[in-house]
Amino acid sequence: MSELMFPQASTKKIAPWLEPIWDGLDLAALPNAVLIHGQSGIGKFEFSIQLAKALLCEASAAVKPCSHCEACRWFDSGNHPDFIALVPETHRKLLPHGDFDSDSELPKKSKASQSDGDSDAPEKKEKKSISIEDARTAIEGLSIGSHRGGNRVILVYPLEMLRSDSANTLLKSLEEPPKNTIFILLADRLDRVLPTIRSRCRLLSAPRPDRISGLNWLRNQLNTIPDLKISDTDIESIYDEQGGAPYAVLDSLIARHHKDEKDELTIAIQASRYLLQAMSQGARINWLDAADKTQKARYSVLLATMQRWVSDLQSCAQMGSPRYYPKHEAAIKALAQQARLPKLLRFWKSLIQARRHENHPLATRIQLEALLSQYQQVFED
């Protein structure tokens, strides 16, 4: 789910904490490639959509996008011929209106993403990486001039999900950029982007909001959603569990509001909470059961949950306070006293190593069992 799918949940497209970046952009002098990086779920994608729209806007006004010119209307309808989005099948629902005109040269929405949701099979077939065919089709079309004589914008998200062959195809275009073509690249993990691609882009670091600002923004969005009732305590708990990423929390709560038990975000929340309950047991953790009950969630989500938990453990072990899970402060402080620090640090390194290979096809359950077994040993002599 995305904010773009629920326009009533927002009246402003640029998140307040990203406005300084927006205000610092000179649309008339933007380089041919911009790489926006930062934590997942903080509004980078929504920011990039507005940036693409502004670059394609044909109004003479100083403030863009105007949302009234023909180019803006085409963009809002998802049919601008000079906007190309390279995203995996699993992410196409995030695009404006999520569909394309039958006569457009843009990639068309997959049949899988057009399903009514009555069957799980189409969802399982959606690819999580950008295919080399899509990349080549988009790049090859750049040799032709833009349809409307202005800019052409290529959005790539998430950049770190590019396969090596697709990344090499993109790199060639960055080395010899076509005229009036601007690449907007998005990455949640800058360390996973090829150095050769990074060096050819202007880097823009998207910050995470401070907790008070993020929660205030989130409450404002939730207040505009009819019939959604949730306590402040629950909002704050989920906000902390999601690492302080307001857009991720908004999507999570919308999914829960619509009682979509099969939604990836709903599964992630349930799995993360069960994992936290299990890890709070320390040496008494039933790691086999924990791995079994959480294996359906994305491995990267589970790893992030473990990293945040261990980060709080390390903080409390050094007389600090938990940053991510203040709700579990008592349990974390008690475990911090029981933990063997050398083992805790080794486990932290294991998590970092696991994050580097989180997209490996190896079964999630096997990897979880190995990590949670090691976690249990942190509290044993």
Based on the model shown, name its key terms.
381 residues, alpha/beta, Rossmann fold, 2 domains, 16 helices, globular, disordered N terminus
Description:
The protein has about 375 residues and is an alpha/beta fold. The protein has two domains: about 5-205, P-loop containing nucleotide triphosphate hydrolases (Rossmann fold, 3-Layer(aba) Sandwich); about 210-375, no CATH class. About 45% of the residues lie in helices and about 5% in strands. It has 16 helices and five strands. Helix 15 runs antiparallel to helix 16 (about 365-375). It is globular. The model is unreliable at about 1-10 and about 100-125 (pLDDT under 50).
Strand order, sheet with most strands: 2-3-4-1-5
Separation of the first and last Cα atoms: 45 Å
| Highest-level CATH class of the largest domain | Alpha Beta
**Could you name the CATH homologous superfamily of the largest domain?**
P-loop containing nucleotide triphosphate hydrolases
What is the third-level CATH name, the topology of the largest domain?
Rossmann fold
Number of strands: 5
Total helical elements? 16
Main sheet specs: 5 strands, parallel
Order of helices and strands: HEHHEHHEHEHEHHHHHHHHH
Proportion in β-strands: 5-15%
Number of folding domains?
2
pLDDT < 50 runs, ≥5 residues: 1-12, 98-125
Rg over CA atoms, rounded to whole Å, is 22 Å
Query: Percent helix among the residues?
Result: 40-55%
| Average of pLDDT | 82
Q: Can you name the CATH architecture of the largest domain?
A: 3-Layer(aba) Sandwich
Instruction: Report the principal-axis shape.
Output: globular
SSE class: alpha/beta
